[in-house]
Structures are given as C-alpha cells and as structure tokens.
From TrEMBL:
Signal peptide: none annotated. Pathway: Carbohydrate degradation; pentose phosphate pathway; D-ribulose 5-phosphate from D-glucose 6-phosphate (oxidative stage): step 2/3. The lineage of its organism: Bacteria, Bacillati, Actinomycetota, Actinomycetes, Geodermatophilales. Its EC number is 3.1.1.31. One of its GO terms (molecular function) is 6-phosphogluconolactonase activity. It catalyses: 6-phospho-D-glucono-1,5-lactone + H2O = 6-phospho-D-gluconate + H(+). Belongs to the glucosamine/galactosamine-6-phosphate isomerase family. 6-phosphogluconolactonase subfamily. This is 6-phosphogluconolactonase.
Amino acid sequence: MSNDSPAPHPPRAGHVPDVVVEPDADRLARAVAAALVARLAAAQAVHGTASVVLTGGGIGTAVLEHVAGLAAEPIRETVDWSAVDVWWGDERFVPGDDDERNEKAARRALLDAVGVPHERVHAMPPSDGGFAAPEDAAAWYAAELAAAAPEGRPLPRLDVLLLGMGPEGHVASIFPDSPAVRDERPVVAVRDCPKPPPTRVSLGFPAINAAEEVWLLVSGEGKAPAVAEALREGTDPVRLPAAGVHGVRATRWLLDRSAASELPARYTAGPPDHAG
Ligand SMILES: O=C1O[C@H](COP(=O)(O)O)[C@@H](O)[C@H](O)[C@H]1O
C-alpha cells in the first residue's frame, strides 16, 4: 500500500470516548480489573461465553495480576474462566520462552492461575512456532480469528479489547508513520519496530475497531502529552495511532492522574457542585 493512501480507520465523527481517571497506577489497575471481571461476566450472562483481547505492557500486566487476585476470592468468582476466549492485540515474534513475550507475561499474571482451557487461549505464534516469517504468523492468526467468527465474517465477537499506549502514541504494535497504520488487514507483521524487539505481529486497525469495547490503559506522566493529543479532535492516526482506535459500542480511556495531567479540565473535573 502506498504511503500516500489515507489511514483506513479514522475516528468516527461524533464518537465520544469515556475518560476515567484514577489517582495512581495501582488504583487504576485495580479499578480496571474489577471492571473487566464485571464486563466478562455480563457478556457470559448474555452469550454464554466472553472474549477478551489482551495487551502487553506494564499496566496491562498489572491489571491481569489484579484479576487473578479477584478470581482467587470465592465471593468474586463471577467469571467462568472455562468459557473465556483469550486473544492478543500484539505479540513479539521471538522464541516462545523469551521474557519479551506478551503471552508469557499474561500466563504468569493470570492465565495459569484461572485455568482458561488450552483451546481458548489464542496466542500469536512465536518465532520458533513453525513460521519462518512474521508475515506467515500474521496470516495464520487472521485465519484463527476467522475460524472463530460467525460464518462469512472475518472476526469473532471481541467483548473487550485492552490496549496499552506508548509515549509516542503507539497501540498494540502499530507505531506512528509505520506501514501498519495504513494496512487494511486484520493482522499485520511488523518489522523494524522502533521499540525492541523489532519484529512483531499485531492486530491492525480493522480488527481493533471491530471490538465491542476498546479500553486504553495508560499510566505515567511521560504519556500525558500523547493522551491529550489522542483525545484532541482531528489528530491524525498516522502520526498518533492511539487517535485512530475506537470500540463499536464504547471507547474507554482509563488513566491515572499523571497520564491525564495534560487533558483539558472538561475530562478531569468532577461533577458540578450543586451545594447550596
Ligand atoms: O510494546 C508494547 O508496548 C505497549 C505499551 O507498553 P507499556 O509498558 O508502556 O504500557 C503495549 O501496549 C504493547 O502490547 C506492547 O507490545
């Protein structure tokens, strides 16, 4: 695809994301964990199953650790983990036992503890998983998604898709001004990634933006400028990929106070004071 072609999935006109601000990263991770458990339980109440797309990164992994903590409390066992499909938004194309694998972090933090059945854990292939190139791994993952989808559709229902965001606005492994920002395929290979490791597999905008709900989890002052820019109307997703993601039903920016520090007051002010 030519570099002059438009980004395929600009934000929808009139689409208003929710912004939630927690005092710090730990309270953010706890709040998101509780909300995720509730959302997956609600999806199971309606559909019998639930599906979540995981992210790598510090805050994404902290959320999973808190979900594991909630799952260990008998009173909070509202999710049937045997009926949850787990997908990934991006993965590093490195050997399966490499500590850089997002899958490895998620298994340690949550999946090993809650016992999601093997066939429901849809990991993106590692570099030693039988695919010589990330392009082949990406094509395989797209076929896995399609195989789980209703007939004739490319994607299954994705109830919640979690995304971290880099300080330059990357989401999943879609980096600013990279070929992935203009790629119309649901899953893409990423080479020469500016953040190591350089070779990755990522969902593309069409798959991310087909999720029912997209939740962006962001903590830390270093990401505050990108948060503010992503939420500013008219920001070009080619330059700041986080500006180009949205859910079908909801887009939620879940921030700690530092990450929200450059947002206009309308996002962070509490409800009007009606006292007196
Ligand atoms: O490389 C990646 O980075 C982002 C953000 O990570 P963070 O540690 O800065 O929160 C992550 O969302 C993505 O899945 C990962 O592969």
